[in-house]
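Sequence in, structure out. Go.
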Amino acid sequence: MHYFFLENHALIESNEAELANEDINHAYRVLRLKAGDNIVVADGHGFARQAVITISEPERVQVRFGVEIPSAESSLQIILFQALAKGEKMDLVIRQAVELGVKRIVPVITRRAIPRWKSGQEEKKLWRWRSIVRSAAAQCRRSYLPQVENLHNFEDVLLRFIGYRVLVPWEDATSVPILKELKQPCPDDQAVFLLVGPEGGFSSKEIDDIVQVGARIVHLGPRIMRTETAAIAAISIIQAMWGDLSGKG
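Output:
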């Protein structure tokens, strides 16, 4: 069943509403949905309903809401702090992080982050990433739309780590496997921060600063991973130990 979002819209059973402008062309011309076809509509905050199309026109697709759909959201709140990566690597990280249940994505400028954007590029990148989030969330049937925050400096995100469980995969870490750290009880607030470094890795000064705010440096195994691989591997392991991939969330 095809999946759509109506962000910040009250999905009340038997009420009708029109699909968002960005979805009309896809529903009408690409999917060729007609009046009487069934879809699912989510509000972007964790709630979804079945819906039936009542009007399908080139400039207007209207639906009537039906029964509530069970949520596919994990109780674990994973916030991914991802150092900028070049090319399409950030796109890949964002798409797969959404599929794995991440709740929020924070792009971070670190010392060795490769991209250096010109004026105006940040807005375009954020628009693209938020579009990827919307598409990925619909594809994997999430009722919650993860947020992509504006670009943050490394120093700024360190202040957000204080008081939270923060895991930081680092290729030079050898003493603490991530699984050892995850054998501890899940945080009571069900929140875990994950900071993934850039393609050039963290500098020694950045690692010192990370440790100073109480974050835990961990390793993902004996092989050096690309930044996009490390992010997805770490999220998968966290969900398997503390989240809904464990069968508990």
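Check: Residues 239 and 245 are 5 Å apart (CA to CA). The first helix runs from residue 21 to 30.
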